[in-house]
Specification:
This protein is of the alpha/beta class. The protein is built from ten helices and nine strands.
């Protein structure tokens, strides 16, 4: 069985990766920020699943040491924040946005991985539509991280799903509405024969994505690849 280190384990996709990996018998170390107000809650959740909890601060050297001790076969970079969290953080004098979390913390994780676990596969959750010139900071910072990953020298796989559906701790009404509108539009496209376009861009659910990511972490055929939404759904199969 494999050993996984999951960063972003409390998010929608992270929880599914953890659950599926444990169901398959893999060892999982789940990272939670040491200052998380729900650290004890997540400790119990992860222990009930048979996973180990790691609360290493986001500091390059310390994270590298933690990865070195864990000896993971795959590291999952599944971090992400929202504008709502950013507004809440601003009230306490903190800065939390796509640049500091989605990019900043993931970049630090990658840097630590190159020294602490250079032989591990880095599984990065990106998004459809990434671009260096995008006006959407969510997509722009993911393109920046993908570029760093390609230059890191590590084995990696980049997953680019479309909208991800599931029960989140924090509701994202805009994302759910957007997914519904996109799927509706794509159903019309499919009716006119553009089946490939429909499959590539329609939404996926978190359990299916979680299964796909675990599969990509283990497959020798997926080294240094970018995997798009339609292939992710095929790999994830049915719940």
């Amino acid at each position: 069985m494999a050993s996984f280190f999951v960063v972003g384990a409390t998010g929608l996709t992270g929880r599914e990766v953890l659950r599926i990996a444990r169901e398959q018998g893999h060892r999982v170390v789940a990272h939670v920020r040491p200052d998380s107000p729900r650290k004890q809650y997540w400790r119990q959740v992860f222990e009930d699943l048979g996973a180990e909890l790691d609360t290493t601060p986001f500091e390059d050297e310390r994270f590298g040491a933690s990865l070195r001790a864990s000896k993971p076969d795959a590291i999952f970079g599944l971090l992400g924040t929202t504008r709502r969290r950013g507004r809440r953080a601003a009230k306490t004098g903190q800065v939390e946005n796509y640049d500091t979390v989605d990019y900043g913390l993931t970049s630090l994780l990658l840097s630590a991985a190159t020294r602490g676990a250079p032989d591990a596969r880095f599984v990065y959750l990106s998004a459809m539509g990434v671009s260096a010139h995008s006006h959407n900071p969510y997509l722009r910072v993911r393109h920046q991280l993908e570029a760093e990953l390609a230059e890191s020298g590590m084995d990696y796989v980049v997953a680019r799903p479309s909208f991800i559906l599931g029960e989140r701790d924090e509701k994202r009404r805009g994302e759910s509405l957007g997914a519904g509108l996109v799927d509706m539009a794509l159903s019309g496209v499919g009716a006119f024969g553009a089946r490939r376009t429909q499959e590539r861009y329609r939404s996926t659910d978190a359990p299916r994505l979680g299964r796909a990511l675990v599969s990509l972490a283990l497959s020798p055929e997926t080294s240094r690849r970018v995997v798009l939404s339609d292939e992710l759904r095929a790999l994830g199969g049915e719940e």
